[in-house]
Amino acid sequence: xxxxxxxxxxxxxxxxxxxxxxxxxxxxxxxxxxxxxxxxxxxxxxxxxxxxxxxxxxxxxxxxxxxxxxxxxxxxxxxxxxxxxxxxxxxxxxxxxxxxxxxxxxxxxxxxxxxxxxxxxxxxxxxxxxxxxxxxxxxxxxxxxxxxxxxxxxxxxxxxxxxxxxxxxxxxxxxxxxxxxxxxxxxxxxxxxxxxxxxxxxxxxxxxxxxxxxxxxxxxxxxxxxxxxxxxxxxxxxxxxxxxxxxxxxxxxxxxxxxxxxxxxxxxxxxxxxxxxxxxxxxxxxxxxxxxxxxxxxxxxxxxxxxxxxxxxxxxxxxxxxxxxxxxxxxxxxxxxxxxxxxxxxxxxxxxxxxxxxxxx
Length: 361
What we know:
With about 350 residues, the chain is an all-alpha fold. It has 14 helices and 2 strands.
């Protein structure tokens, strides 16, 4: 909004020319969302605590250390969504279609998560929105998102899958790409949701992956840099770096209150929304495989649940002591902080590997 209002006045006021630069607006979005999260955090937490008498339900079969978290409010994702949305609308070019597609997916998934959290808290139970209904809504939103992404993508880049680390290697999936992209968005959303089980475990990897895509979206939207790095150039995607900056700032602000011992949990409200945002951006810039690499922790968490369920249903035996896999390590005796920090370290390593693909082509 500031770009649309102030940059046209740059001819009269030369200082306003800074709003032309994505780097300036990305920094502005990051700082703005961070400040908003810091300022609104205590108020939102107090409201959630007053409305949620018992807080998020704690699984009795989970690690014993989690019983001490009883009474901690959930739906902290509202803080992330509020701070990042305000910041995005202030600093991004609001005429950019990719901004609106990603923002609508993020808020829609956040709404699904909010309903899920509300039902859990009001019923004081882990059973909330029926799984099939939730997936149907998520896939419906993803289908619309992929349709509009294709409508705003150059024809030569529609329905293609880029292969990282290889020069000019792309696979045209044709109409199957629509199904593939839907699964990327829904899968990313639910993978982040499964990761959100320990204080700070999900939000830091989300910020790290968002930082990876901050750079990728900027480069993809810059024709000179994209050609030099031999990556797909898609006009308009650079604006998503502002979106990523806002997510990072809001995430940092949320982490201040989510750091152990957490004052508030992200809940499905935040995890579904953030995963949906990352998945949508990866589809827009044709870097779905990079998302799987940088977000390897999310992939590992999701696979651990799938493996556990399939193993138990087919053999009656469990592969892990508990799924998702972060609980497996807790059951093995790892302290919660140890699990969280080691998962952060792994995410940093995976992010470096993902970014190295930009030059190794």
